[in-house]
Amino acid sequence: MLPPYAQTLGIEVAAGDDPILLTMPFGQALTGRPGWLHGGAIGGLLEMAAIVAVRQALAEDGGGQIKPINVTVDYMRGGRDKPTFARGVVTRLGGRVANVEATAWQDDPARPIAAARMNYLIARG
Amino acid sequence: MPHADIAARTGMADAGLHPAPVSIQRSAMSPDPLPAFDPARFSRLGVGGHGGLLGLSYLAHGPDWCELQLPYRADLIGDPDSGVLASGPILTMMDMATSLAVWTRLGSFRPHATLDLRIDYLRPATPGKTVIGHGECYRITRSISFVRGQAHDGDPDDPLAHVAGTFMFTDAA
Q: Model confidence over B91-111: pLDDT tens digits?
């Protein structure tokens, strides 16, 4: 279900009953500064969480295809040697555009390590 | 924000770039000597890390810019139906290219972390083509550097992404 890029980063749907909660393990291949996650890997996880959230919202609303228009990532804390979680929230699903916010955290959802806002173009099915 | 928290921010600091053949291209527009920081050498030394996983390598640099390349690979695809690369690898490359541009303009390495990065996806990357990321640093203040850049897959006049962002130095200044 997740694309090859997600598999390359080790991104999976997290265990449990939330189908759009993603998790990414820590690994040497995901680091920038030694011992810390690369901002690009965190950004990739956030985008994937946003895509999964939009796809689910769209599937419940008649289906369709999406294209990314833009993303803005804010980095708030360093990503340490532990699993990272991310979840997207569709703030508006319109006829042509979806607005999505995604957050990434490690220990506590209330202490995010990064957050992103994204706009997606929608082609209704 | 407590200093410890600032220091704990992420970012690419020591970019794990894939070793690659080096060809330093000096800009024909500026005859000035290049600054002391050498992104080509820095990129060669940095083995492994996330840049290594994605296959990123150094391409060129000038006084305030640096270019990296991202070869097309099936395991970086974001849309299996079209074969288009995911946006994540492009985001990562632009983070690294703009980060190297900061140190290149500065003339020396100084630890910093990505504060924010915005990307406009102008069009999908062409399946099969290497994506080139051009990062530029256009302003450095005491604690913040300002960057911008474009990504293209062969024709710089037909960019596929445009980025703008900021980095914050994490050493005491």
A: 999 999 999 999 999 999 999
Q: Please check whether residue A92 touches B, CB under 8 A.
A: no
Range B118-143 average pLDDT = 97
Range of the domain at B141: 3-25+33-169
Q: What is the CATH number of the domain that holds B123?
A: 3.10.129.10
Q: Is B93 within 8 Å of chain A by CB?
A: yes
Q: Is B112 exposed, middle or buried (0-12, 13-18, 19+ CB in 10 A)?
A: buried
Domains recognised in chain A with CATH numbers: 4-124 (3.10.129.10)
Count of domains observed in chain B: 1
Identity of the residue in A4, A39, A45 whose CB atom sits nearest the CB atom of B95:
A39
Which residues in chain A have their CB less than 8 angstroms from residue B123's CB? none
- Check: complex ipTM more than 0.85: yes
Where on the phi/psi map is residue A82: left (φ > 0), alpha (ψ -120 to 50), or beta? beta
- As given in the structure block, the two tokens for residue A79 are 């990503």
Task: Kindly determine whether residue B50 and residue A40, on different chains, have CB atoms separated by under 8 Å.
Answer: yes
